[in-house]
Amino acid sequence: MPWIILFVAGLFETGWAVGLKYTEGFTRAGPTVLTVVSMAISLGLLGLALRSIPLGTGYAVWTGIGTVGTVLFGIIFFSEPATPARLACVGLILAGILGLKLVGTS
């Protein structure tokens, strides 16, 4: 269960990272509130997951999920480049996440 919580925390990290783009420097109230709420949920879930998952593993997986999600969201919705090198780097992050999951505890 801690790994599921950590995965959901990573999804909310993606949400707040993408939300930052919509806040336009925190000048738009609606997106700013949603971004802050997403931040709080993400950090809260990370804290719960870290009760059972080692700190270094949990934090790296959490940021990795957020990074991959944010890059993919940017490619799909903001027409950011999907070059082979960029996608290979995302693949390396995914490999790191999987590796940490396989060698982590819980």
DSSP E strands, number: 0
Q: Output the radius of gyration.
A: 15 Å
Q: Alpha-carbon distance between the termini? A: 9 Å
**Mean of residue pLDDT values:** 94
Q: DSSP strand (E) fraction?
A: under 5%
Please render the helix and strand layout as text:
Blueprint: H1 2-23, H2 29-49, H3 55-77, H4 84-103
Pfam family, one: Multi_Drug_Res
Family: Belongs to the drug/metabolite transporter (DMT) superfamily. Small multidrug resistance (SMR) (TC 2.A.7.1) family. Gdx/SugE subfamily.
InterPro entries: EmrE-like, Small_drug/metabolite_transptr, Small_multidrug_res
Task: Describe the structure in your own words.
This protein is mostly helical and 106 residues long. The chain has helices at 2-23, 29-49, 55-77, 84-103.
In short:
This protein is an all-alpha fold and 106 residues long. The protein contains four helices and no strands.
Give a quick set of tags describing it.
Small_drug/metabolite_transptr; Guanidinium exporter; single chain; 0% strand; mainly alpha; flat; 106 residues
